[in-house]
Write a structure and sequence with these properties.
The chain has 106 residues and is mainly alpha-helical. The protein has 5 helices and 2 strands; from the N terminus they run ββααααα. It is globular. The chain starts with 7 loop residues before the first strand and ends in a 6-residue tail after the last helix.
């Protein structure tokens, strides 16, 4: 488990624990990569349960990079995420919540 006071979420990639965090830089990188989309639109998609696998991947990559990881989306194409796609989606949503809420609200 990551430190919720720091907005951290833990993920296992190929059996190795990594900490994800949506820092301001990671959020800016995420938003830039979304092109015409906005960060608010991404949050709304997660709230409505209408997010895409692209959304999940983008959030996981941004969170990993915010946590100090130096990889990119291509590195995750063959990585095994602990818990598979459902866990990746849950962790992506948790990243959003922790980035914009106090830990006792998340």
């Amino acid at each position: 488990m990551g430190n919720p006071w720091e907005g951290e979420v833990a993920v296992r990639l190929n059996g190795e624990r990594h900490v994800m965090r949506l820092t301001l830089g990671a959020l800016a990188e995420l938003e830039a990569g979304m092109e015409a989309d906005s960060l608010l639109a991404l949050v709304e998609r997660f709230e409505a349960g209408s997010f895409s696998t692209r959304d999940v991947l983008a959030l996981i990559v941004a969170g990993l990079r915010g946590g100090g990881w130096s990889g990119d989306a291509r590195d995750l194409l063959t990585a095994e995420i602990g818990g598979g796609p459902p866990e990746a989606a849950r962790l992506a949503g948790q990243l959003l919540v922790r980035a914009f809420a106090m830990p006792d609200e998340a």
